[in-house]
Amino acid sequence: MDSHAEATVELSTISGNVEALCEHVAPAAVMAVVKANGYGHGAVPAAHAAVDGGAAWLGVVHVAEALELRRAGIDTPLLCLMAIGSDQHADAIAASVDLSAGSAGMVRRIAAAAAGAGRRARVHLKADTGLSRGGATLADWPSVLETARQAEAAGSIVVAGVWSHFASADDPGNPSIEAQLAAFKEALAVAEGAGITPQVRHIANTAAALDVPDSRYDLVRVGGGTYGLATLPGGPPPWLRPAMTLRARLALVKRVPGGTGVSYGHRYTTSRETTLGLVPVGYADGIPRAAIGLPLVWARGQRWRIAGTVCMDQLMIDFGDEPVAEGDEVVIFGPGDNGEPTAQEWGDTLGTISYEIVTGIGARVPRAHR
Ligand code: PLP
Question: Is 264 among the catalytic positions?
Answer without folding.
Answer: yes
